[in-house]
Write a structure and sequence with these properties.
single chain, 449 residues, alpha/beta, Rossmann fold, 2 domains, seven-stranded parallel sheet, six-stranded parallel sheet, 15 helices
Length: 449
C-alpha cells in the first residue's frame, strides 16, 4: 500500500475574508498544489483571484456571507464601531461563528455533493463548516492563522494580552478571564445548536465542543512565539506561521537612492478597515521628526488622501513585505499575527500599537521576549517617537528579535503542515454515517479546550 507522501488527494479549504486568516489558507493550499494534489477553496468572492493564483479551484459562499471586496462598506463586523472588546467579540459570534452556521454548513455540503474531498481544511471560526462535516462523516481539520482562539491549558486566554502566569494570583486571574471568554462564546450556542438540529445533530454543551470534532487543530503559529505549555492536548499541533506574498502586492523597488543610509522603518497596519488613519497619521508625524526613511503600506484599507505624508515618508497601497524587510531596520505594526511573524522571521524588532482582535496577544508575545515595544492605540506622537528612538538606539531589541526570529523562522521552514494534512487525508474516516446519523468522535478529543 502506498504511503500518504506518495498519493494524491482531494482537499477542500474553507475560509472567509477576515484579513489575516486568508493568507495562511492560500499558502498551505499552494503547497499542496505543488505536491500534485487537487485543491479547492471556498471563501468570500473577494478571494477568488488569490485562490486562482495559488492554483486552487474557487467557489464563493452562496448562502453564507460573501464579501465582494475588502472595503469598509462591506465589512462583516464593523468592529471599529463596537463600544468594547466584548461587543466586538459578540459581533464575531453572531455574524460568523454561530448566526450563519447553517448557511455555511449548507454551502459546504453543496460543495462536497458536487465533488467529494478526502479532507476538508477549515478556518477554526467557521463552525458551520465543522458541523456540516460532522453530520456527513467528512474528515476535517482546522487551521488557524493565530494563537488559539479558545483557552488552552497553561496558555494565557486570548484577548487582554496577558503574559504567562507567574503565581497563583495570576493563574486565578487567567482562569476567570478564560471562563468569561467561554461564556461570551457560548452566547452563540442557541444559534449553533439550531444549525446542528437542521443537520440532524444533537445539541452541544459548549461552543468549543464543536472544535473537538475535528481530526486536528493545526495552530498556524510558531511554538516558540506562543506561550506554549510543555505538553499539548493530542488534537493540537503547532505548524508554524504560513506566509506567502499575496498576489495583490505590487512589485517593490526602493523609493530612495542607494546612497541613502538612513534606517528604513516599515509601517504596516491591517489590510481590513479598523479606523486606523488617526494612528497612522501619528506614526507618520513621529517618523517626520527622526532621521529615518518611512514606508507606509496601506493594504487597500485606507486611501492615501486620508493621510498627510512627511518629506521622509512614502505612502504606497501595497508592497511585498519580505522584500522590504530585507532592507528595513524595524517594523511599526498594529500587531496582526502575519505581520508580526513576518517581521520576526526577518529578525526585525517591532513597535506594536494594538487595535483589538488578537493584536494585544501578539504584542505581549513580542514584548515579553524583549523583541519590541508596545503602546496603546491612542499613544501620542511624542510617545511613538520615543519608542522608535529606543528601538533604533538600543541594540538589545534587535538582538532579542534575532533570537526569537531565528526560532520562528526555523519552525516556518520546517513546518509539518503538508505531511500532517496528507496523513489525515489518507486515514479512513472515523465514521461513515449518512447525513442526519451523526455519531460522536472519539471521546479523547473533547478534552482539548
Amino acid at each position: 500500500m502506498m504511503d500518504a507522501a506518495n498519493r494524491t488527494f482531494n482537499f477542500l479549504f474553507a475560509t472567509w475574508e477576515g484579513g489575516g486568516c486568508v493568507g495562511p489558507a492560500l499558502t498551505v493550499a499552494a503547497k499542496l498544489v505543488r505536491r500534485g494534489h487537487r485543491v479547492r477553496l471556498i471563501s468570500d468572492e473577494s478571494n477568488r483571484a488569490d485562490a486562482v493564483a495559488a492554483g486552487a479551484d474557487f467557489t464563493a459562499w452562496r448562502r453564507a456571507p460573501s464579501r465582494p471586496d475588502r472595503s469598509r462598506e462591506n465589512d462583516l463586523f464593523r468592529d471599529w464601531e463596537a463600544a468594547s472588546p466584548q461587543e466586538g467579540l459578540s459581533r464575531v459570534v453572531d455574524r460568523l461563528m454561530a448566526g450563519p452556521a447553517r448557511a455555511y454548513g449548507e454551502d459546504l455540503a453543496e460543495a462536497l455533493d458536487r465533488e467529494p474531498a478526502d479532507l476538508v481544511v477549515s478556518n477554526e471560526m467557521l463552525f458551520g463548516v465543522a458541523l456540516a462535516c460532522e453530520a456527513r462523516g467528512q474528515p476535517f481539520a482546522l487551521l488557524t492563522a493565530n494563537v488559539s482562539l479558545f483557552p488552552l491549558p497553561g496558555v494565557p486566554p486570548m484577548g487582554p494580552g496577558l503574559p504567562p502566569a507567574r503565581n497563583e494570583e495570576d493563574r486565578a486571574l487567567h482562569a476567570a478571564i478564560a471562563d468569561g471568554g467561554r461564556q461570551m462564546f457560548d452566547a452563540g450556542l442557541p444559534a449553533l445548536n439550531a444549525a446542528r438540529a437542521a443537520f440532524g445533530l444533537a445539541p452541544l454543551a459548549t461552543m468549543a465542543d464543536q472544535l473537538a470534532r475535528a481530526e486536528r487543530l493545526l495552530l498556524g503559529t510558531a511554538r516558540a512565539f506562543d506561550f506554549a505549555p510543555e505538553t499539548l492536548p493530542q488534537q493540537i499541533l503547532y505548524v508554524g506561521p504560513q506566509l506567502d506574498t499575496p498576489a495583490w502586492a505590487a512589485p517593490w523597488a526602493s523609493l530612495w537612492p542607494a546612497t541613502d543610509e538612513r534606517p528604513l522603518v516599515l509601517v504596516a497596519f491591517s489590510t481590513t478597515f479598523q479606523n486606523q488613519a488617526p494612528i497612522l497619521q501619528r506614526v507618520i508625524d513621529a517618523l517626520a521628526a527622526l532621521p529615518v526613511r518611512g514606508l507606509v503600506t496601506l493594504g487597500g484599507a485606507i486611501a492615501p488622501e486620508a493621510l498627510v505624508p512627511a518629506d521622509n515618508v512614502r505612502l504606497v497601497d501595497s508592497a511585498p513585505h519580505d522584500a522590504v524587510l530585507r532592507e528595513a531596520a524595524l517594523v511599526v505594526s498594529y500587531g496582526g499575527h502575519g505581520t508580526v511573524s513576518r517581521a520576526l522571521i526577518h529578525r526585525r524588532p517591532l513597535l506594536i500599537l494594538p487595535q483589538g482582535r488578537d493584536q494585544n496577544d501578539n504584542a505581549v508575545r513580542v514584548t515579553e521576549r524583549g523583541a519590541g515595544l508596545s503602546l496603546p492605540a491612542d499613544a501620542g506622537v511624542q510617545e511613538i517617537k520615543a519608542s522608535l528612538q529606543r528601538l533604533l538606539g538600543e541594540p538589545g531589541f534587535a538582538a532579542a528579535a534575532r533570537a526569537l526570529g531565528a526560532k520562528v523562522a526555523a519552525e516556518a521552514a520546517q513546518s509539518p503542515v503538508v505531511a500532517e494534512l496528507e496523513r489525515l487525508a489518507a486515514k479512513p474516516a472515523w465514521r461513515a454515517a449518512p447525513l442526519g446519523a451523526a455519531a460522536a468522535p472519539p471521546a479523547a478529543r473533547a478534552a482539548a479546550f
